[in-house]
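Re: weekly structure request thread

Next one in the queue (435 aa):
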Amino acid sequence: LSLQQDVIAGFLYAILILVVFHPVVDLIDNFNLTYKYAPLIIITFEMSAVEKVEQQLAALRIARRCAPSEEPAYLLDIDTSTAAQPGSGRFVAVCCSNKSIRVYDRETLHLLHEYSGHPGTLSGVRFAHVCDSVVFTACSEGTVKCWDVRSASQKPVQVFSGYPSNIFISFDVSCSDLIVCAGTEKVEKDTFLVFWDARGITDCASTTKEPLGVYSESHNDDITKICFHPVEPNLVVSGSTDGLVNLFDINKDNEDDALISTCNSDSSVSSLGWCGKDYNQVYCTTHDEGFCWWDMAQLDTEEPITLLHVLDVRESVCAENHGLHYLVGGLYHENAGKLFLIGGTSTGDIHLISCGTDGLSLVGTLCGGHSATVRSFCWSQTDESLLTGGEDAQLLLWKPGAVERSLTKKASLKISSSVQKRVRVRNTSLKSRKK
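Done, posted below.
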């Protein structure tokens, strides 16, 4: 009974804190609380903050829908520019299955430019972090190209060429915009991470840059994902169909010294990213809908680095009548310090999944937007909005509590399955991490 009274008292004082907005320590002093209530008060406040974010995500509604394109295509990747100054316009770039890049106005979703005529399959799109009008694309024919969306020209302002055998299927740009890195498909016995110096991209138009060098020993199969650290330009992680997720410090002189850690997802990596305080954690999803989450801050300690490993998220998350058919990727909410997963159904429903070290749980489902599989998304921390693109050729902008102005909705497209990504799932023996 005494314990119950203590708990009730703790919650009552926690409610006072949330209403009055005074610091916890001040209230402890003012109301002569014993310090045994302080941890309970703090935990209650943190839970409420996370719950508020989860409610906001679940309340996302369609604010805009792009106009139908004359040539429908799967929307495979999405990225948004960072406004150069407050109030300036922002852009959205979309990588399409018809080998084109489309650039839209961020708020209206009006089409501004379309860059077509790529000789190979596109493997992603990324805006520069410093210059908000510069966008990069990688192509399977062995190049990474840079475009200036302010120009009406169909020609890239910069081309980064790989080696003759390179087939690029992933890439990223460092947070300082100094380095571009692309991952290759395995050709014979070779697979590479290729690096270029990206400085002066708009000052030497129409020139071709040769690679700075390559890493060739750390993966033994297709490199499906590359992701630079959000604030440390020398750190990059790569994921592969060999199941390995490698962390590199590219400031080191050679590949062997650069390899900081190797983690094993036990499957083919489909997406990966950074999260956690100071972005010292790495997560990945796999092509068979698995999920792995590691804490790289524990590399030099005796503590385990694995925070969570779920072999099949579809079996661990209860999505009631909607089901969960696939994962798209991860979303790290900076304000809440919380990691979420984005998944969905073949009929276009989008599931928002909360990640904790104790497991995964469904936060909410966004319905009524897409009519087919969602392939890509992009989260904006600035206005807490979500962009999604899918196999129904629709680009949607979701905002909390929004009301859609246009209710037009296209039927699901039937596009040849040849654009589906080749997936090879392999289990590999655990490679001990390197410190």
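Confidence is low (pLDDT under 50) at residues 15-45, 414-435. The chain has one domain: 49-400.
Next request, please.
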